[in-house]
Write a structure and sequence with these properties.
With 589 residues, this protein is mainly alpha-helical. 38% of the residues lie in helices and 7% in strands. The protein is globular, with a radius of gyration of 23 Å.
Amino acid sequence: MKKFINILATAAIALGGVTSCTLDAINYVEKTPENFPITSTDASQALAGIYQNLSQVCANPQMSFFYLSTLASDDNLGGGGTNDKLMQAMDLLLNYQNDMTHQFWTDRYQGINRANALLSGVENMQLEDAERQQVIGEAKFLRGFFYYELASQYGRVPLVLTTEVAEPTQPTAAELWGQILMDLRDAAENMPSTRKSDGHVDKFTAEAMLGRAWLFYTGMYGNGDDLAALTSTTYNPLTEVALPDGSTLTKQDVIGYIDDCVNNSGYSLVPDYRNLWAYTNRCTVEDYDYTKGQELKWVEDDAAVNPESMFAIKFNKLASWQTTIGYANGYALHFGIRGGQDYANTFPFGQGWGAGPVAPNLVNDWNAAESGDMRRDASVQNVNDLPNYTFGGGSWADFVQETDYYAKKQAPISARYTDGTGATQYAPVFEYVMYGENGWQNDNLMQTGNIHDLVLIRFADVLLMQSELKEDVGGINQVRGRSGLAPIGSYSLEALQKERRWELAFEGVRWNDIRRWHIAAAALEKQTNQPVYYLGTPSTNTAHNGGYAARYNATAGFFKIPETEISLANGGLTQNEGWTDASSEYGTW
């Protein structure tokens, strides 16, 4: 059967895959691996096509795994308005419409198809060996990352490793995760020991992602792969995993990769935790009461390289709401403060759709466990402390699950500036001031002007993975020391769990953490009866369809496979448990 390669010549063109009619098979460019790609430029373009999938998913962030993993966790509620039922459904582990997240499924399989196409032709490229190995490593990393997200969100998704047309079937969890781990291991082995700072992944990023995938799979599936085992409260992680090539990956092997990343990568902790987040940008920092006068400086000021960022999605001015919306950071827009009002009232935070209000149980747990932790105020804003905020105390009339707490890390950030008349103005996004008013594709900067990075892996996470794998306090205490906290004397899983929760709050990792530690049902249930506002009126976060724990125990946190894919698969796909009757459907708040 003839194979085809899909190439993305420019990042503004979205291409489809060629694997199967049920996995969005659209062939746009037919070039066989025997004659394309050939040159180093061709290889770079092919890689650009795979990386572009990151932006493609950002065009519909509300369907993505990062978005789901934030809202589904115990640290955030759903939020949004009465019509934003998808947000609330994700929080409640319920379904809204048959194809609630179908676009994410389609987009990620397009990325996988592109990776498969490049890998199928890599031996025909006229490349130096080191460059060839880098290309192979990046393609395998991205395929492994795409499958990591799909397998985390949906469970046993079809495993497609070639460009040949085939009807989808469901692999076992062991087969699927074995391939994910092997791709990431191979990526770490293939790529040279050269740190990248140009937006591409490197050997050390692959080592970090290998650690993340290893910890999830070996923890989540440590008791077995049926629903009872996955929802058991016993944490019994695997210590070795069989890979598809016949080799075995062990816990000690993964420790070796993580140690190499820590010791040899050149990535480092930013000295001040607050400088990781965009509200310390040079255009805003001295006008925000929390940060002014403290000599803080955002690590990404004027497109500088963040020394702690290992894998991030980059954005630019070319975002258009109608065509290239994925070039903007849509997560910032979705997580922005809800309620149209003067930007002076919400300053320094921009505005958006109100997704993911911070769950009060997180703030309560944090205060009880580590009241002096500066990361709490660096990560969470009590909106009642904003001097001019109009809707404090739940006075916004179209907000579901509103709380008094707002997550700062992924927020849109505004800036003050002086216009030509000398008057003070507020830009919807600080990027308008920092990067200038010219060159924007779209004038509605509230929607398309957020272009600061979305960091997916940073070095602090690697240090905490190192402590967890080695069961020592080295990495934990480095992370604590950066925030001015006293070191802990001895390792415990409980201490590690708390440290990851505080350090990595709102960064998309908490959801899989509580699942793999087998504490999800209890953690999620703590959101029930927490104080919220409903349409501006004090209320409580009420149980739906049996409640958080019941829904988790019915699903193990795997969401509904899009019904379109079930139908097109002709029996090749089975719907996940917990999603086949009315008990899984979200109606209204």
